[in-house]
């Protein structure tokens, strides 16, 4: 493992956040199924939090008896608002659970990587252009050594 690879693995929280975000954006079906199960199992808690705590505070702020009674231009938005808040809470909880899973996974990978011997970065093989340039330089040096000084002097003046 090189220093550069170890440095990449060092940023555990950032990598965990990025991987959890990728799962949500990519739509990995297995991970989404796990999230659905977690969301369903905590549905009662989320419903109670949304309806009894958050929606009660909103109802109190609007001075209405219940959120279901909130009407805007004849449209009852109270129930929709409750469902929207429940969705946001579930989505946030699923994302935090994924973040925790990837945080643990990346921490384990980083600890394993730190235990490995750090190898120096491999020296890249020279490209064909670099080899050709080196050969031309050698030929030029040999040309200057074996050619008479008058010819090399004329050549350099032109």
UniProtKB/TrEMBL annotation:
<dbReference type="InterPro" id="IPR036019">
    <property type="entry name" value="MscL_channel"/>
</dbReference>
<keyword id="KW-1133">Transmembrane helix</keyword>
<protein>
    <submittedName>
        <fullName>Large conductance mechanosensitive channel protein</fullName>
    </submittedName>
</protein>
<keyword id="KW-0812">Transmembrane</keyword>
<keyword id="KW-0614">Plasmid</keyword>
<keyword id="KW-0472">Membrane</keyword>
<feature type="transmembrane region" description="Helical">
    <location>
        <begin position="30"/>
        <end position="50"/>
    </location>
</feature>
<dbReference type="InterPro" id="IPR037673">
    <property type="entry name" value="MSC/AndL"/>
</dbReference>
<feature type="transmembrane region" description="Helical">
    <location>
        <begin position="83"/>
        <end position="104"/>
    </location>
</feature>
<dbReference type="GO" id="GO:0008381">
    <property type="term" value="F:mechanosensitive monoatomic ion channel activity"/>
</dbReference>
<dbReference type="Pfam" id="PF01741">
    <property type="entry name" value="MscL"/>
</dbReference>
<dbReference type="GO" id="GO:0016020">
    <property type="term" value="C:membrane"/>
</dbReference>
